[in-house]
## 1
Amino acid sequence: MSAVTFRKTSWAILAALTLFAAAGRAAEVTRVVSALDDSNGFDFNLTASWSHDAKSALIKRESESMLTSGIAPDLKYAQTRDVLNLRADFGILWDVGLHIEAPLVLSDSNTLNFDQGVTAGTSSFINDQILPGATGTPQVFKSPTRRGFENLGLGINWAVFNQHRDDTKPTWIVGFDAKLDVFKDMRYDPANPTGNDATGLGYHQLIASTWVSKRFHHFDPYFGAHYMLPIRTNGSIFQDENPATQTSVNPQQQAGVTIGVEQIAWENPRGDQRVTIEARGHAEEHFAGRGYSELWEPLSGSPGCTTTGTGTACRPGLDVVDDAQGNPQPSPYPGVTDIDAYGSFGGDLGLNIQVGQYIRFRGLFGFSVDMPHFITDANAGVDTNHDMVVNSMDKAEANPIYRESIDLPGRRFHVEKTEIWSLLLEGSIMF
């Protein structure tokens, strides 16, 4: 072999090794911290991300009128939400990392207005006095602006396979997260609308997830799946008032999948620099259960309402139930309702920039929709004596959180045309 041929062959081998080394870099969703490596004994990442969501939906209602049938227009819902998420990742073992995060809600508020063609005289929401005093001029309802930490997140990720170490295998990560409800929970009291601006959900979230990515030349496709199990906290708004007859108690469970790809637009492996364009789609199932619907605050009753004519009056049909003798008793409605199962679908488009070994940035712009679903759909109770009828006066049969005024077929609220626009901006410092 001549010297020229030897040099050409050497450069070809070096180029190939460089290419394969670049192929080992995983997608952002499968980035993992590690420890006990020969060249890097300990990884530590600090990440701050800001997300902005703008949600809109139409709230309709079943009609019992002889003049109309089906579902009639009523309200328009709009929500904006801004969250600053703070996260720290640190490696503890080879391709095993722990993380802690705290989402700080900067602002979360919503409004209700009349749907097109609806007036105060034709709105069943107004006519049923669900929100006493509401006139719809200029707004039917405006929530308090909520702020504060939502939960405390703890988690662990393990890279079962790591393409950066062995480019014959994909990068496969399995993870477990616990989002702990340790901060003040959300409540709404119509007698004191601004008295609670907390953001806590009233339940812990246990989340199992897995992500897989495999880079091929300039493309890095990935797949992810997750499942969330909620666990009610003591004293939360999700209470089991009668275990024998309350047919739904727990918050909604969730499961979802994500499929995406990163296209490597530019890369400098020696300088740990690269720019990728990311596109992904996702689908999520929200299982039937209790939850914070678009109407949870207006549906909430005042804890101190009375039926005696003094103080804040309980709303007939919502905050009052009859005892065994038929006498009305205060029972303020909790606000959270039985929500039907529904799916969510959407996609994101974004840009990832790694400036060097220690700094990276990420941005995603997305859009998603929720499928139409009922948001007040509690069962009347349990037919314990098998006479084919649930006796609403019998505590052994009646569901304590069932209200005919909103849960009876013909009076239920229905959400349609839900659209959510989102923006995520993220920056990380990596050591």
## 2
Amino acid sequence: MPYSSVAIVGRPNVGKSTLFNALAGSRIAIEADSPGVTRDRVLYPLTIDDRTFDLVDTGGIGIVDSQKLENLVERQIDIAIGAADVIVFLVDSRDGITPLDQDVADRIRRSGKKALLVAAKVDTQRIEDALPSFHALGFGDALPVSAKQNRGLADLGEAILGLLPPDDGTEGGDAEARSLPKIAVVGRRNVGKSTFINQIAGAERVIVSDAPGTTRDSLDITIRLEGAAFTLIDTAGLRKRGQMDDSLEFFGHMRTERAVRRADAVILMLDATEEIGKVDKRIGAFILENYKPCVIALNKWDMVEEKSPGIALDAFTKYIDDRLPGLSFARLAGLSAREGVNAWQVVESALELVRQGGRKTPTAALNAALEAAQKKRATRAKGGRLGRIYYGAQIEVSPPTFLLFVNNPSQFDDNYKRYLVGQLRRDLDYPEIPLRLIFKTSDEKEVGRYT
């Protein structure tokens, strides 16, 4: 069941994202002094006193957007207000009441939702002494907070809990929310990631626009349908570093990399009608560096089929292997994000890779595979000696990580490591999963302690 929802609402640049991050205890939403940074709804499952609810950051009401996305941002705010059980009406304590604050107040009153008036940036006693003026908004006393000084956050948490509907026992705990498989959807700008997310969510969950760079934050979207529960992470579209316009794009880039690192699997979305470029290659390399299972999703596949009837995905295999070296193990899928064709199958593929990566291999099977690999192909001799693997043990899952006790790690060059990974992937039934090998110097006597 979905959690109760608490939406932070206010005009632009009152500090909504800063407060959101302070309550979450992490820099989840992008913060900047310029107004209009947040566009989509950013959700975080926040737990206070064993009660978990969705904390929602929203765009500024009355935003003037540089890409003319005002109506789309307002639509996301409307959805957040409509879904909210409690609204945190945030004002800037230093500015006093502005006409736009009055507009926000009217909008909240029309919603009929429970609301808390909260004054941000209350960093001094002088500012706090002026808060009674906010009574004119009609929401009672303004609760003072300062995210910068960590002031008033506990009181705000208690006030939110006091307004939430009773917990009927159907809401999961924070641990359950965090344990759901996480799938990051990544790719260059305007490749169809947000359209894909909305198809899976079955709702207008994120803003979709032809304007490039629409998504800025990394957005966690929990999906529960068809007997599956998981979290999709929508990410900012990437482009070459030298082409980044401003710090917001840089922060979005950093959050995309963070999304890959914390994901259990990654969907790398490519435009099937365009060539694979440098940005795609850089994303692929980053996925590989972090040992993430990957589905390579070819969006607009319907347009390819229309142009070349009967074409099979296999026709792209060599091309992708050449352009994305190292990701030859990745699962390949074609889809139309706009039409929703094969979208769910792409997610199912990613979830299957999560299950593959979480599997533990019996030690006997691992060592049998290592022995067979060494018999089939030996390392190159260095100093008259061959590299020898005495014993192996799996020490982690996701990614499957194997500790190998060897006579000398330097005997195993990159070519042999790639060979060994290929053999283990085949023999241990990890056909589409990256494997991590750790080589440790040992001798046969020492290995005896691990067997």
## 3
Amino acid sequence: MIMQADIAIIGGSGVYDTSMLDNVQEVEIDTPFGKPSDAITIGSFRDTNIAFLPRHGRGHRISPSKLNSRANILALKKLGVKRIISASAVGSLKPEMKPLDIVIPDQIFDRTKTRESTFFEDGIVVHIGFADPFCPEMSSLLSDIARELGYSVHDEGTYVCMEGPQFSTRAESRVYQNLGFDIIGMTALPEAKLAREAEMCYSMIATVTDYDVWHEEDVNIETVIANAMKNEEAVRNIIKEAIPRITLQRSCICASALAGAIITSPDKIPLESKRKLNDLIGKYI
């Protein structure tokens, strides 16, 4: 029997440590949108079941633009997950947000171009609210824990999500700075949008690896990887402290995002769409 999970961690293979879990099992999940990036590891940490998903697959083999985020999020939903902690390496667009700092962003700006960012198509129209893209309850908790553990943490910030996989040009980096963005990465979207459509809480631990290319030192993959590896321990420590303190009773905006958002009349939704999206909209139709 496949274990269910309450909380999911999405990140690179170094972000999590399955040795902290008991009763570990790997599960393969199919979704109407295909398979997720890799098998999902599920285990128990104290009294909570946790699911781990390597965003880019084991061995980091899937480019940000090619991630099947719909399959990733829906697979976690099918396992019962209500809250997602995303771990992501980012570049800094502000001098005060230094490499090895931690940012808990509260806003996103979308600069992606080619990604499927909604579950709803084929005869069903849904308009969810997305003014506050990260779960405020969980983000506040993560900020508090990071500070308690002594890390240099920034409680808020706007994450500009670029398409990638190339890094920014100097012109782009300067424009992002002038627009007031704080950090830049390639993976927050469409994850955050899809998690909201699935009524799952989504918050991010963003770890700064570099200053992008506005700084006197150009960004390069060697620096990014080296600093990402240094940040892994901090992320693991924050996650371990957060899990016992995350309540599964939710009163946040995420828990009822679909209420009133489904524009199409239930009797007009094609049967195939109902079947395909039963894990998301079953209680509303």
## 4
Amino acid sequence: MSRIQLGASLSEKLAQTLETCIREGQLKTGEKLPTENALVELHGVSRTVVREAFSRLKTLGLIETRQGSGAYVKALPHPEAGKLKLIPDGSVDAVLKVVEVRRALEAESAALAAERHTAKSMQKIKQAMRAIDKAVANGGDGVSEDVAFHAAIAQAANNPFLLDTLAYLNQFLENATRVTRANEATRADLEEAVRHEHQAIIDAIEAGDVKAARSAGTKHMLNAAKRIGNADPAFWSSQGRALANRLRSDLSQKPAGTASKKTKI
């Protein structure tokens, strides 16, 4: 396993390196991943970075962790699963359609999480929220943290089929989130609105209010679509357009059925 190239998001780069090893067969189904200590020494990163990378791989459905034993490679999805084609065309409309997919998934994830969450899963959701705040405070875009926040909600929903669907769609959701958060970062009031929407979802889930959680999840996605639709034309003609076009190029060049390389775009 080659050393990762250090950059702004070490956990993302480490996750990408491990994902490549898994998909190329260097790490096979059922095989144990290197220990935290081994990865810390090999890549010169912290334990936190390693744990965040493992969390991302779990979200993608590539690994499973076993208490007291370590992380192991899961069986890759059947090749037929790769027949679903989702390649945005570089337009505002394409991003909005991905947001529509998120609306359907996130609303039910929040509702199920309100019904089924445990103290432990609730703690993970709150930790994910704090991670977004920390990333933004440090000048980051909070994209990977945003995706992790919604993944934590899906995990609290305790539905393996929902988790598998989100794992497959995560590559598209993450890149759509890059566009939406890039727009939201252009104005402080938009960033604050997003935070309030996230908090409303957390409050409803913690209260066990299924109806309120579903409503908060739906409202968050509807507002995300509105923020994209109302974006300053200058944003979309430059940064937003560049992000979407780059996403289109990256996805159109990769083999069908493979996961996104999660390029920081």
